[in-house]
Design a protein that fits this description.
A hairpin with a 2-residue loop joins strand 1 (64-67) and strand 2. Residues 61-84 and 212-218 have low confidence and may be disordered. The protein folds into 2 domains: 39-183; 189-278, no CATH class. It has 286 residues and is α+β, with helices and mostly antiparallel strands. The protein contains 8 helices and 8 strands; from the N terminus they run H-E-E-H-H-E-E-H-H-H-H-E-E-E-E-H. The chain is 48% helix and 8% strand.
Length: 286
């Protein structure tokens, strides 16, 4: 139920077109201590979260899954796991964590039970929300986030009658929804692959890729140098292999550096031992 008062909005919102007047027209509080503009801005942010999460998660090939503390690419034969498109998961996690956090905050404030996905949220040993559950698909991500955002929308009128400072913190936190949406436009544009076209030794060109199906064709990725077109399975396999090889090369380089350091340390130990036993040797043998 909307409650209208004669009091101005607590944020001193001004009716558009009257900002430069000698006495700007303040908007009336219609939702607790807030005007309708404040209320609808928060409602719209909540409304766009499920589709945005689904859109971000759908940018990944189907074999890509999430695991604690990093992003992993599912390989075959027990191969290594490697980082993949971390920023996208960070953004999806932010939106999920935002919904979990505030569903629980407002459920506590209103003395009601939070929605089920908030109660079952993936947490670390300290109780902090980690993010989207492992192996989340675009559909399940949208459903779980949608349950929480719908609950917040349904409860929003009651929420806006709570402490004004807490409501403003909530609304300000939701501003991040717009920032993340700006990074993931719904009209798909090609992205630059982490993998150059290394499958052809003389090429090495930059690869642009689209989420599967977004172009309405079978083409999933295209080399900008030689125009070679990858299909979805081919591109997934190529990226998985490329990143696995990079990780193995980095591991080998780290191991070689560690071995060189150990060898240098052993030489230094031997030198110090000989110096302590025989002292500094001056001159050359006759």
């Amino acid at each position: 139920m909307t409650i209208t008062t004669d009091m101005p909005c607590v944020n001193r919102c001004v009716r558009k077109g009257t900002e430069t007047n000698d006495e700007p027209e303040l908007l009336v509080a219609r939702h607790g201590e807030f005007c309708h503009r404040c209320f609808t801005r928060t409602f719209r942010a909540l409304d766009r979260v499920p589709a945005l999460v689904q859109h971000i998660v759908s940018n990944f090939p189907t074999s890509i899954t999430k695991a604690p503390n990093d992003i992993r690419v599912s390989g075959t034969g027990g191969g290594p796991t490697v980082p993949f498109n971390e920023q996208a998961w960070v953004d999806a996690d932010k939106l999920y964590s935002l919904m979990v956090t505030y569903a629980q905050v407002w459920a506590t404030a209103l003395a009601v039970s939070p929605p089920a996905p908030a109660r079952r949220s993936w947490r670390d040993e300290h109780g902090y929300v980690i993010g989207l559950p492992a192996n989340e698909t675009p559909t399940t991500a949208r459903r779980n986030v949608g349950v929480m955002s719908d609950w917040l929308k349904i409860t929003l009128e009651e929420i806006f009658r709570c402490d004004a400072e807490s409501v403003n913190r909530f609304s300000e936190a939701l501003a991040e929804v717009g920032e993340i949406a700006g990074k993931w436009p719904t009209e798909e544009r090609p992205r630059t692959s982490v993998m150059p076209h290394v499958q052809i030794s003389f090429c090495g060109g930059e690869i642009k890729y689209w989420p599967a199906g977004s172009q309405g064709t079978d083409t999933h990725a295209v080399c900008t140098a030689c125009s070679y077109e990858f299909d979805l399975d081919e591109y997934e396999d190529a990226v998985t292999t490329y990143l696995a090889e990079k990780q193995e090369a980095a591991r080998m380089a780290k191991a070689e550096a560690a071995a060189a350091t150990r060898a240098a340390n052993r030489s230094d130990v031997v030198r110090r031992h000989l110096l302590g036993k025989y002292g500094e040797i001056v001159g050359s043998p006759s």
